[in-house]
């Protein structure tokens, strides 16, 4: 003990306290971004954002964190000039007084507080983080400069986000429900209006336009028993009526409906879950933790996966409301069995393309590009919602299962799923080329 005290005293006398603090700060902030994404997810769940909106929040927050850390690693480059509308980020005046790992978290929380509803919840988490820094003996000068720079980058990202059309999207024409039997109509039990019908007007992060990878038309509407859509509807009907092994468990595992309504007797209540994007962000974060990625490598991974999700949703939603095709539930109730219900709740937006399929394929393609194919991982994103962890042999296999879960759940046609996986792959491959 005396030797330890003596060493500390000598260290103080020789002026190495600042180096010790810097090392402690580096260790403290090394992989904290994965933790902050989990904190953000909890706030997003309670705020009950729609899946497309969730993806936007993840993207801007993680881009902010990455842009701070770029300055700490000469092998990484800024996204400025590569992402639509993103200009050069502010540079700090006193680099030697800034801890970039800590500043990246402040940039992340600064953006998050602006984009979520429950700003106070994110502020409380940031305040707690600040108190942890104080307990480490960080100098006032280093803390102030670090916080100041994190705020500056966060503000720059917020200003960029404000110009993406998000606030103006609902000024566009609403999606009209018509008597056309081929068009989407609200479904039981809530008969809710279509969610985010104008999401395709939001500026993509990398895509040149929201319709860049729009797939061809959906199944041709036809009530004949020999028609392709009737046979596809029968397949959905039977998948729920006579489910194969693990159909129901797979459907439930990948449900990822952020706000499921549950009716018990005369009482209806809502259960919140992680969104599809949140599920894939969890997978990306768990891989970074497993591989012990550095702070900047973690930030790059999370930012790129988040952008693949966000542009995947923009691409998918543009096509959804371009075509406005009906759900299997509507078709089956009208032409096969009026009493039939899907295993999971049909979400309130058109059937084609499949959102979960597009974004799962996009995220899996990006993860495979960064980490490699045939990467075995354990997905525990659903543990907090009462579902056991699942092992997958690759990201693409996880995406394929997520896609098929929509057939097993009774909410998508199989042909839609196949086409949607291809759309997601196209989105991610374009991002990969543009972000090289």
Summarize this structure briefly:
The protein is mainly alpha-helical. Helix content is 55%, strand content 4%.
Residue fraction in strands: under 5%
User: Major sheet: order of its strands?
Assistant: 1-2
CATH architecture of the largest domain: Orthogonal Bundle
CATH C-level class of the largest domain: Mainly Alpha
Main sheet properties: 2 strands, antiparallel
Structural class: mainly alpha
| DSSP E strands, number | 4
Helical element count?
A: 15
Low-pLDDT windows of residues? 1-18
Assign a percent range to the helix content: 55-70%
CATH topology of the largest domain: Vanadium-containing Chloroperoxidase, domain 2
Number of domains: 2
Give the terminus-to-terminus CA distance. 52 Å
Give average pLDDT, whole number.
90
Gross geometry: elongated
Cα-atom Rg, whole angstroms?
24 Å
Secondary-structure element string:
HHHHHHHHHEEHHHHEEHH
Give structural notes.
- The protein is 55% helix and 4% strand.
- The chain is mainly α and 436 residues long.
- The chain has a two-stranded antiparallel sheet with strand order 1-2.
- A hairpin with a 2-residue loop joins strand 1 and strand 2.
- The N terminus is likely disordered.
């Amino acid at each position: 003990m005396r030797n330890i005290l003596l060493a500390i005293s000598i260290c103080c006398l020789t002026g190495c306290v600042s180096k010790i603090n810097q090392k402690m700060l580096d260790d403290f902030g090394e992989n904290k971004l994965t933790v902050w994404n989990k904190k953000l997810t909890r706030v997003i769940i309670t705020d009950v954002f729609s899946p497309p909106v969730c993806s936007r929040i993840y993207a801007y927050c993680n881009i902010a964190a990455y842009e701070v850390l770029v300055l700490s690693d000469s092998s990484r480059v800024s996204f400025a000039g590569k992402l639509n509308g993103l200009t050069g980020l502010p540079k700090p005046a006193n680099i030697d007084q800034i801890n970039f790992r800590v500043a990246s978290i402040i940039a992340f929380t600064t953006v998050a507080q602006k984009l979520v509803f429950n700003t106070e919840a994110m502020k409380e988490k940031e305040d707690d983080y600040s108190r942890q820094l104080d307990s480490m003996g960080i100098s006032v000068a280093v803390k102030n400069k670090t916080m100041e720079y994190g705020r500056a980058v966060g503000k720059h990202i917020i200003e960029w986000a404000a110009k993406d059309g998000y606030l103006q999207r609902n000024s566009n024409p609403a999606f009209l429900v018509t008597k056309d039997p081929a068009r989407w109509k609200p479904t039981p039990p809530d008969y809710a209006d279509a969610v985010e019908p104008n999401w395709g007007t939001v500026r993509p992060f990398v895509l040149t336009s929201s319709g860049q990878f729009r797939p061809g038309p959906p199944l041709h509407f036809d009530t004949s028993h020999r028609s392709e859509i009737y046979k596809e509807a029968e397949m959905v009907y039977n998948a729920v009526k006579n489910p194969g092994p693990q159909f129901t468990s797979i459907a439930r595992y990948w449900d990822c409906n952020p706000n499921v309504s549950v009716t018990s007797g005369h009482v209806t209540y809502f259960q919140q879950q992680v969104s599809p994007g949140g599920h894939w962000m969890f997978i990306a974060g768990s891989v970074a933790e497993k591989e012990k990625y550095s702070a900047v490598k973690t930030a790059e991974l999370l930012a790129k996966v988040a952008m693949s999700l966000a542009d995947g949703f923009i691409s998918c939603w543009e096509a959804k409301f371009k075509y406005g095709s009906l759900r299997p539930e509507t078709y089956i109730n009208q032409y096969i069995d009026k009493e039939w219900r899907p295993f999971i709740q049909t979400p309130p937006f058109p059937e084609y393309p499949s959102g979960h399929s597009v974004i799962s394929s996009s995220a899996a393609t990006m993860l495979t590009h960064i980490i490699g194919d045939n990467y075995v991982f354990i997905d525990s994103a659903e543990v907090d919602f009462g579902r056991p962890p699942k092992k997958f042999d690759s990201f693409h296999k996880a995406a394929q299962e997520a896609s098929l879960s929509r057939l097993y759940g009774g909410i998508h046609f199989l042909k839609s799923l196949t086409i949607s996986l291809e759309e997601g792959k196209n989105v991610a491959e374009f991002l990969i080329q543009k972000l090289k």
